[in-house]
Amino acid sequence: KYKEKGFTDDALIEATKRTIQNCKKLNYNYLIAILNDWHEKDCRNILKIKELDKKFYNKSHTKKEKKEEENIDEYYVYDNMNNEKAKIKEILKEDWCGNLKYPTRFALMTDGTMILVSEIGKIAYCPPGRFSFFKNDIKK
Length: 140
Fold this sequence. Notes:
The protein is an alpha+beta fold and 140 residues long. 36% of the residues lie in helices and 18% in strands. It is built from five helices and six strands, in the order H-H-H-H-E-E-H-E-E-E-E. Strands 2-1-6 form a three-stranded antiparallel sheet, with no helix packed on it. It starts with 8 loop residues before the first helix and ends in a 5-residue tail after the last strand. Residues 63-73 have low confidence and may be disordered.
């Protein structure tokens, strides 16, 4: 169906990879949502998808946020293991992060799961209980 809509094989593979990364299994509804979103944005090949990723990153992050800041919006990320503010550059050296590269951001999923997300959409699931989110005015 999506090949008929002009999707290339590499775009379909990328959508499948992102679905499995985010759902830890192949979730048909999630996959269809990705493809429908890309279709609406006329992104049917890997080059256009990468351009869309960059536009999304640039739109959602200011130059100030791209530098050393590890907080998302008004939240503070606390490293419970080291009892200090989370230092993403140090955390990325840990095995559970896989091959994520800086700049990477924390994200909080709707189910409470915390993840690290790279600027190109790669993710790593944070160990349960390792980090906490606080409003910036709570922990400094």
